[in-house]
Amino acid sequence: ACLLLKSGVLTEARHICASGPSACASSSGRMGEPDAAAKREGYALRHLQEGDFGKGYAPLLAQLTDVGALTQERFMEVYKLREQRPDAYRTLVIEHKSTCKIVGTATLLVEAKFVHGGSRVGHVEDVVVERAHRGVGLAKWLLDTLAEEGRALGCYKVILDCKESNAPLYEKCGYHFSEVHMRLDLPRIGEVAAANGQQRASSESEGDSAKDQSNDEIGAQLEHEWEAKGCVGSG
Predict the structure, then answer these.
(1) Do the Cβ atoms of 86 and 48 come closer than 8 Å?
(2) pTM of this prediction?
(3) How far apart are CA 122 and CA 17, in angstroms?
(4) pLDDT digits 0-9 by tens, 181-230
(5) Is 54 in contact with 76 (CB distance < 8 Å)?
(6) DSSP string computed for 7-59
(7) How many CA atoms lie within 13 A of 192 on its CB side?
(8) CA 157 to chain centre
(9) How far apart are CA 7 and CA 28, in angstroms?
(10) Distances from the Cα of 62 to the Cα of 74, 75, 127, 128, 233, angstroms
(11) How deeply is 186 buried, as exposed, middle or buried, from its count of CB atoms within 10 A (0-12, 13-18, 19+)?
């Protein structure tokens, strides 16, 4: 499912949430959840930092999807790449203060468009909250803050893809169903090279087999002709 959040439907609570949980606690807008805000006092929402890899960032993402061989070196390469484009990449994390572990994260990717007068669209990706810390409102905290950052960066809408079973969560955050999500899985370069190598090896093997078969057929034909001419002795 593809869900969309128009910048025009941002509520007062979303404005306040960008300032942190203490501001949310005093809000009378849609958030209006002082108990949830109080529970969030044990957490800190901020942007991703270099040291977060050692605070369980990769295992957290693994609760969402396959992270593959994400080493600390590769993490730093991606981190530095994103740091060079703060106008295009915004990754938020939530740190559990008592354990110093990263228990929530979400990323906003900003796409510069030619349409709508050269405006921008925000794409929300990699939203996940650690299982033991769900039900506190951390996902909504992340999404509200990303929506505010998207509007500050000039986005006229924010969109995301999710499983249909997760749609109710995003609807609570102001998103609604819009259009249809389509996907094309592309094999990685290494996988393509390996597949091509296997195909070449298979073709060469089939070619050798065809050559052997062809040689056997030619030999049998010659032997048949020699026998017909009486050219083959009995040894």
Answers:
(1) no
(2) 0.69
(3) 18
(4) 888 999 887 776 676 777 776 666 666 666 666 666 766 676 666 566 55
(5) no
(6) GGG--HHHHHHTT-HHHHHT--SS---HHHHHHGGGEEEEE--GGGGGGTHHH
(7) 5
(8) 19
(9) 20
(10) 16, 14, 11, 9, 75
(11) exposed
- Exposure string of 8-21, with b = 16+ CB inside 10 Å and e = fewer, is eebbebbbbbbebb
Q: List the structure tokens of 62.
A: 């693994």
Structure-token match 């998207």, residue found: 150
Q: Rounded mean pLDDT of 132-138?
A: 93
How far is the C-alpha of 27 from the C-alpha of 17, rounded, in Å?
9
Alpha carbon distance 73, 10 (integer Å): 38
Which residue is associated with the tokens 């929506």? Answer: 147
Task: Provide the 3-class DSSP secondary structure of residue 108.
Answer: strand
In one-letter notation, the amino acid at residue 50 is E
